[in-house]
Amino acid sequence: MSALLSIRDLSVRFASPGSTAMDAVLRHLSLDLDRGEIVALVGASGAGKSLLAHAILGLLPPGAVVCGEVRFEGQALGPDTLPTLRGRRIALLPQSVTHLDPLMPVGRQVALAARRAGAPDPGADGFRRFGLDPAVRRAHPHELSGGMARRVLALASLAGAPDLVVADEPTDHLDPDSAAVVLAALAEVARRGGAVLLVTHDLPAALPFAHRVALMRGSRIEAVEPAAGFLGAGEGIASAYGRKLWQALPQNGFLTDA
Ligand SMILES: Nc1ncnc2c1ncn2[C@@H]1O[C@H](COP(=O)(O)OP(=O)(O)OP(=O)(O)O)[C@@H](O)[C@H]1O
Ligand code: NI
Predict the structure, then answer these.
(1) Domain range for residue 130?
(2) 231 FRET partner, CA 20 to 30 A, in 49, 97, 212, 248?
(3) 37 CA to middle of ligand 1, Å?
(4) What is the reported pTM?
(5) Which atom of ligand 1 is nearest to 53's Cα?
(6) Residue 236 maps to which CATH number?
(7) Residue 178: inside a domain, yes or no?
(8) pLDDT given at position 257
(9) What is the residue range of the signal peptide feature (predicted)?
């Protein structure tokens, strides 16, 4: 059976300011996501994680030059196919809460996200599931804390029961309990046969949920490792880069002196 999402030799370039040269911000990336799978995409700030997330959804800024191919259920994703899939079968949970409409009560935004996908409005129960008081539905985004807004974004992006969720730092600025709620909701997507690309700085927090870990460095995917390899001193991690990253984590720091 073919992968739910298949990225093949994807490169993205931008014109560099004041020159005719193009800067590659993603270089020859290939990655598959199967149904039922959560793949964590981990890498330093600026590695290109958000660009990859946006490239999958066809949401790169104008001027981006894209080569390579992204397929969903074998169908090439592009201007012909993405508008009908985005927000329905494929959802982005964006890194920035500025994606919420500042002028609309958040309950209405969640209801519209659901309706767009032909799904029922999650309503008060949806807000409760994400640890939010149902009264929050009447609030506008500026009345919410950063953590509340992130949970509303998560609720809105999952409201349409998408098959594929690209979640860009979904637990940023969340307390551990709220982060666990959001990660559990993403795990549910995979459990019912979808797939999740979980972009994160926080490898340890992602590990209990992820099946594989794609390590990004300097516009490339350096290695893809089974999540189960990230334990102990990292003997189970095949790539040198993965081992180094694992051993450099504060909680594993004692191992780097060994
Ligand atoms: N519109 C753009 N034009 C030119 N370069 C861009 C553009 N958007 C992003 N970049 C560059 O692409 C690189 C990757 O950015 P990206 O936001 O994907 O990083 P990231 O891995 O998501 O980082 P973070 O962890 O901080 O969110 C950066 O060096 C950035 O400067
Ligand atoms: Ni990012």
Answers:
(1) 100-161
(2) 49
(3) 26
(4) 0.94
(5) 18
(6) 3.40.50.300
(7) yes
(8) 47
(9) none
